[in-house]
Automatic annotation (TrEMBL):
Cofactor: [2Fe-2S] cluster
Gene Ontology terms for molecular function: 2 iron, 2 sulfur cluster binding; metal ion binding
Family under the similarity heading: Belongs to the CISD protein family. CISD2 subfamily.
Annotated localization: Endoplasmic reticulum membrane; Membrane
Transmembrane segments: 36-54
Name used for this protein in its record: CDGSH iron-sulfur domain-containing protein 2 homologue
SMART domains the UniProt entry points to: ZnF_CDGSH
Gene3D superfamilies given in the database record: CDGSH iron-sulfur domain, mitoNEET-type (3.40.5.90)
Topological category with respect to the lipid bilayer: Single-pass membrane protein
GO biological process, alphabetically ordered: regulation of autophagy
């Protein structure tokens, strides 16, 4: 702890005290090459901190790939499909990958999606008891 304390109280303060920081912006033009080299680590560190801070607060666009629904009823705030249970028939497959062109029914598009992305999604199959 003593080493750290000495480093913070003495070494760092001596480093800052010896930095050839001019009193005005015009003074930067009068710095020698050696003075610029002395300033380089400090300017680089400050620049890096500014860059990292800006990057942390910069709004990042949401990549399209993070959205499950890429194209179905995008004008709606929420996609809801109602199906009368009497209309289900003996067997029906509902899409869960959101890639079907017959949404909400499955058209097999999940196969291509799974091949392209390594995903493993598939339909919800509703089957009447005893149906094939
Ligand atoms: S097409 Fe989406 S689950 Fe089959």
């Amino acid at each position: 702890m003593e080493v750290l304390s000495h480093f913070v109280r003495v070494s760092i303060s001596e480093y800052f005290r010896n930095l050839p920081v001019p009193d005005s912006f015009v003074g930067f033009a009068r710095l020698t090459g050696t003075e610029w080299l002395t300033l380089l680590p400090f300017v680089g560190t400050v620049s890096l901190l500014i860059y990292v801070t800006i990057q942390a607060f910069k709004a990042k666009p949401v990549p399209e790939d993070t959205k499950v629904n890429r194209k179905i009823q995008k004008e709606s705030s929420k996609v809801v499909n109602m199906v009368d249970i009497e209309d289900l028939g003996d067997k029906v497959s509902y899409c869960r990958c959101w890639r079907s062109k017959k949404f909400p029914l499955c058209d097999g598009s999940h196969t291509k999606h799974n091949e392209e992305t390594g995903d493993n999604v598939g339909p919800l199959v509703l089957k009447r008891k005893g149906a094939a």
